[in-house]
Amino acid sequence: MLSSIYLIACIENHIFHFTFRSPISLSISFIIKMSLPIDGYGQGLYNSVSSRWNEYDKESAQWQFVKLLTKPSDVFRYIRSHRHESGLWARNNYKFAGLEVVFILILSFIWYVFPKFHFSIHILITNLFQYIVRDYVLFGALTATLFSMFLNKFGLAVRSYRESRQDVEWKFCFDAFCNGYVALIFDFFLGYPVIYLISLIFPNWFFTLFLPNTLLCISACHFLYLFIQTLNVLPFIRRIPYVIFFVPVFFVYFLSLVFGWPMARMWILGNFP
User: What would the pLDDT profile of 195-241 be if each residue is shown by its tens digit?
Assistant: First the structure.
C-alpha cells in the first residue's frame, strides 16, 4: 500500500507539475493532494466530503425521518445543536412537514389498488381533506396551540434570578407533533393496508378487529413517545412523563375490543362507501 501511495505521489509531482498546468491537471492534482495523507494535506478527500455530507444530511428532512424511526436520540441531539447555531428550537422551514404530506398522499392511493375500492374524485378529495387537512394540519395546529399554552403557563421549570424567561415556541410544538406523526405514517398508514389485505383472505375477529386496533394502539403510543420526548428536549420546562399518556390510549383500546369498535377501519376507511 505504501508503494502505491508513493507511486501516485510521484505521478502527481512529475506529471502534473511538468511543463504546463491545465485546469484538468490542476483539478486532478488537488484531488490527489486531498485524497492522500501525504505532504501534510490532511485527512483525505473522502473524510472531508463525508463529514460535510453528514452535516448536510442532518439538515435534511429525509435524514430526520429515518432517524426518528431508527435512533430518535440523534434527532434530539441535533435539535440541541440547532438551537445553538440558529437561536431557535424549531426548524427553519416546513420541509419536514412537506415530506410527511407527500408520504400521506402516496399512501392514500394504496387503497385504490384493493378490490371493492373504486376511484372517485369526490372520495379522493374527501380522503385527502381528512388525512392531510383535518388529521394532520388542523389536529397538529390544535395540539401545538394547547401544549404551548399549557407549558408556558404551568410547565416552565424554576429558574434562577439571573436566567431570563424562555417561552415554548408554538412552531416547536408543531415540530414535535410532526416528529410523532412519523410513527403513525410508518407504523399505521403503511401497516394497516397489509393487515386489511390479509383480512380479505381470513375474515375473522383476529384480523378484522384485534390486529388492526392493536396496531393503532401501538402506533398511538409510538406517536406519543416521539412527541413528548421531543418536547422534553427543552431544558427550561419540567420533564413530561410520557408514560401517563399511554393510560387513556390503552383504556380506549380495551373498550374497543370489548364492545367491538373497529376504530382502525372507521378512521382510515370511513369515507369509502
Answer: 999 999 999 999 999 999 999 999 999 999 999 999 999 999 999 99
Note whether 79 and 59 are within 8 A (CB): no
Model confidence pLDDT, tens digit, residues 83-104: 877 778 888 888 999 999 999 9
User: Which of 156, 174, 181, 179 has its CA nearest to residue 166?
Assistant: 156
Residues 6+ away with beta carbon under 8 Å from 104: 131, 132, 136, 185, 189
Distance, CA of 191 to CA of 221 (rounded, Å):
15
Q: Going by C-beta distance under 8 Å and a sequence separation of 6 or more, which residues neighbour residue 224? A: 180, 242, 245, 246, 249
- What is the pTM assigned to this prediction? 0.77
β-partners of residue 237 are: 156
